[in-house]
Amino acid sequence: MQMLYNSDNYVVVQFDMTGRAEPADGPALSHGGYEIVDKFARKEIFIQGAMAESFKQSVQELIERGPTEDEVDEYLGQFSSLMQQPLTMH
Questions:
Q1: What is the rounded CA–CA span in Å between residue 7 and residue 82?
Q2: Which among 1, 15, 21, 45 could disulfide-bond with 26, CB atoms 3.0 to 4.6 Å apart, if both were Cys?
Q3: Is pLDDT above 60 for 32?
Q4: Residue span of the structural domain in which 27 resides
Q5: 3-state DSSP call for residue 7?
Q6: What number is the average pLDDT over the span 6-11?
Q7: Residue 11 CB-half CA count within 13 A
């Protein structure tokens, strides 16, 4: 788990989980994704697979342009409508 972004509005955490396929000499299986948390709406989404790859590429393109925090938050706001999981504190 690695925190990639933290603003007043959003947090983005990357999860990487790698395991070995059976038999032991098989290819490594990679599972994981990104958790995006909207602090004000108190909701989050976990994306993985093709959506996570698309997210990663889009964020890399955004970073290359040297965005402001507001621009990054605006980009992350595009995921707000998909956030269905309420945020709970443990």
A1: 20
A2: 21
A3: yes
A4: 2-86
A5: coil
A6: 96
A7: 13
pTM: 0.80
Residue type at 62 in one-letter notation: L
Summarised one tens digit per residue, pLDDT across range 41-88 is 999 999 999 999 999 999 999 999 999 999 999 999 999 999 988 877
In the chain, the number of structural domains is 1
DSSP string computed for 13-45: EEEEEEEEPTTTTSPEEEEEEEEEEETTTTEEE
| Residue-wise DSSP of 42-61 | TEEEEE-HHHHHHHHHHHHH
Going by C-alpha positions, the residue among 12, 4, 8 that lies closest to residue 45 is 12
Asked if the model's pLDDT at residue 20 lies above 60, the reply is: no
Give the span between the Cα atoms of 14 and 1, in whole angstroms.
6
